[in-house]
Amino acid sequence: MISQKAKYAFKALIHLARQPQGETTQIDDIARQAGVPRKFLEHILLDLKHRGIIASRRGRAGGYVMIKPPGEVTIGQVLRAIDGPIAPLSCISRTAYQPCADCPDEAACAVRRMFAGPYEAQLRAFEATTLADALRHQSDPVDLDISRDIVSAGAPI
Prior knowledge:
Strand content: 5-15%
Order of helices and strands: HHHEEHHH
Number of helices: 6
Helix content: 40-55%
Largest sheet: 2 strands, antiparallel
Radius of gyration: 19 Å
Strand order of the largest sheet: 1-2
Shape: elongated
Structural class: mainly alpha
């Protein structure tokens, strides 16, 4: 699951991405329109600013603005900016790799093998899905009935 902080980041970014290019939006407007508590939003926007996704401007017409086009901001980039590494195991992370302390042989590790494939598929989807996709599909109904694809561990296949 993504953190609440990451969910708020996506809401704020989608709000900013909907604004005309180059137009700034004040933090209070983002908080109100995106439904994000202002106190959380300050930290989130700073994290996104440090990653070069948004910028801030001071002054009367100040606020926050997207500096990366929505089509270049991926789910993976945002999750890493807000929550850090997204791999389920450090030994398969592409950006924060570390060998597992309790694993004598990475190549023979069954746990690593078990997670590598699903993580690779998820990572491909995270890197291929952008804010522009969220904006493009905003009126499409979302099919959340994934239960037909889930098989319980004890069920016969």
